[in-house]
Amino acid sequence: MSEHTLEITPEITIPEHLTGQVQARLAYVDEWITGAEVTTSGDQIVLQVKAAPDEARSDELNAKVQSVVNEMARGSFKPKVEILEDHLDRPTSYSKDPMDELLARGEVSEEGTGMFTFGPLMSRLIDYLEGRFLELADSFDAQPYRFPTLMSAKFLGRADYFRAFPHSLTFATHLREDLEIISAFSKDAAYEEDGLNVSPEIFSKIQALLSPATCYHLYFSLADKPLPNGELTATAVGNCFRYESTNLTSLERMWNFSMREVIFVGSKDFVLENREQGRQRMQSVYEELGLAYMVESANDPFFVGEFRKQAAFQNAFQLKFEIRACLPFKDSTLAVGSYNYHQDFFGRHMNITLPDSSPAHTGCVAFGLERFAYAFLAQHGLDPANWPEAVREALS
Ligand code: ATP
Ligand code: ZN
Ligand code: MG
Asked: What are the pLDDT digits (tens) for 268-322?
């Protein structure tokens, strides 16, 4: 952690409901920023910076930060937070950060920023949790799908993803088909300091990205045709990638994680009823897992320019609810999954039509597998003897 800090007084006081979200966006404001903290009162921002900024650099950083705060907070009103389930007071038996013990035991190792390898305990726990999510999928008779890890740039563009979430994209490329380029690379490429010693021109134009979400693949596969039978329920697990910059911390925020989803495509009623059914069916599962959590309305992590409008829209139409598990060691909560409704957004953008020719509606129930396991361990510890019976028995 750098010892240089820069204090900024925002021109607009950041309302409390936005402090976390503004703080998260500040990571992307300038490469000099290695950390940011917004005070709870919202009238002070403390930036951690790589080096001591001179006056010109300070002014520049200040201006960039002010513009982010202005974009996100100007005219923003407190969203109506809806709590659908509240079991935060469910008893838990552990109060440390499980990460220390996981690392010490070799159960988790970090290959690079945000890239983790899991040992047997985490792997078995994740398999068990996934089994529970598959039971949910089965209860809907969801059809299994397998998706690629790469995602087509063409389709992501059509889904307006570049506008909404540019900051967290991860691009996939390859060397241009050129003998000189490939030969030079094979001779000289090496890792130095903070990356490969090569220049961007040797790479091809971007055709693919690493998938930022799982269900998008299903919508892409259904594009430009009528939806057979007018409805579809599917399930899939996928590798997902979100570059969360300096917010990439422990298993809470990874660059590469996995998401199991149950996905609904059909009429508005079909999607909304199933999303609600999914939520209700999961309640007894969380109870068996002994999970202390709440389900609360939320918004997607839109980037600055789109944030205010889109977040308000999601809130007004109740498009997203998060399952937020308690992390006792830091007295906070972490989203381990979400219940989402996209209206006919994908139906329109992907041209997926229902029998009456109207665009299909879509929704999904999504679980972050590593986060779910991490939150479980944060609540119950690493010793299976202290785990809720259902989990202990299944894993013994
Ligand atoms: P957050 O609010 O924490 O950024 P999100 O709202 O972007 O998460 P969704 O798009 O709803 O998350 O994704 C579904 C689930 O995938 C999340 O509830 C979480 O469990 C998991 N997830 C999302 N981003 C990450 C990440 N960077 N690392 C690990 N898991 C993640
Ligand atoms: Zn989804
Ligand atoms: Mg969220």
From this structure: 999 999 999 999 999 999 999 999 999 999 999 899 989 998 999 999 999 999 9
**Residues having CB within 6 Å of any atom of ligand 1:** 242, 244, 253-254, 257, 259, 300-301, 335-338, 366, 368, 370-371
CB-based contact 328:90 (threshold 8 Å): no
Nearest to 279 by CA among 266, 291, 265, 262: 262
Same domain? For 40 and 118 the reply is no
Nearest in space to 275 (alpha carbons), one of 219, 223, 218, 343? 343
Ligand 1 atom closest to the Cα of residue 24 is 4
Q: How far apart are the first and last CA of the chain?
A: 41
Helix/strand/coil for 368: strand
Spatial separation of the C-alpha atoms in residues 238 and 257, rounded to whole Å: 8
Residue entry with tokens 């996209």? 342
Ligand (nearest to CA of 293): 1
Q: Give residue 388's identity as a one-letter amino acid code.
A: P
Mutating to test ligand 1, I would choose from 129, 161, 338, 365 the residue with most ligand atoms within 8 A of its C-beta, which is 338
Task: State the Cα–Cα distance between residues 266 and 355, nearest whole angstrom.
Answer: 10
Which protein residue has the closest C-alpha to ligand 1 atom 11?
338
Supply the angle between the helices 55-73 and 304-316 in degrees, to the nearest 10: 20
Across the chain, what does the average pLDDT equal?
96
Q: Based on the fold, state whether residues 228 and 355 are members of the same structural domain.
A: yes
- Tell whether 266 and 315 lie within a shared domain: yes
Is residue 250 domain-shared with residue 185, that is, in the same domain? Answer: no
Confidence tier at 2 by pLDDT (50, 70, 90): low
Are residues 26 and 34 in contact, defined by beta-carbon separation less than 8 angstroms? Answer: no
Number of domains in the chain: 3
CA-nearest residue, atom 30 of ligand 1: 368
Residue 45 in domain: yes
Domain region containing 48: 4-73
Angle at 333 between CA 74 and CA 271, to 5 degrees: 80
Name the residue with tokens 């008779």. 141
Helices then strands, each counted (H, E), the chain: 13, 20
